[in-house]
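Session log. Operator J.P. requested a structure for one protein chain; no other inputs attached. Running the standard single-chain path with token output.
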Amino acid sequence: MDGEYTFYAMEKHRIETAFLVDITFTETLMEKKEKYPDLKIINGNFGDTGVARQIEDVDAVMLFDVLLHQVKPDWDEILVTYASRTKSFLIFNPQFIASNRTVRLLDLGEEEYFKNIPHTKDEEPYKTVFEKMYEIHPRPQYRQERTYRDIHDIWQWGIVDDDLIAKMKSLGFSLRYYRNHGKFNNLANFENHAFAFMR
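Structure written below.
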């Protein structure tokens, strides 16, 4: 929310230039950004091709807890978009372990969906997702028509390791580091996995 992963990386490593992309920025983030003149803020959805074009070639793309939210474009299309702009990907993501293939969690149905995510039916923005699934969401930050089903504020995917690794291989990247960090939030079907891919 406040760009803490970005600021941590900039403090701990010698990063010349960094890009932070989001559709909203907190006051805390903007105040802290003043100490980092080499941090470029881009307002928009990082999955939009117009936003991606604003990012120069970089040594690494860091995707922390975001791939499972990405639809239109989907998580694998995000990887395609940024593959030509970087030599490496650093990915930390809750990975699905209850299947041998990636699943769109909403397709599991309402009961199974809520068994597999760390949120309840009573929380925003989850309380209206199944009721209004194919209605256009009114949130103006999306800047395009999106149904409730296709908002990135909710859990969308159960991505399995084999599919992620195969996608990266198809883009010319090899797995150089992997670590299983254990269960995510005590969910039975998700574990936090870390990956480093390089050309």
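Operator note: The helical segments are 4-12, 27-33, 49-53, 75-83, 110-115, 161-170.
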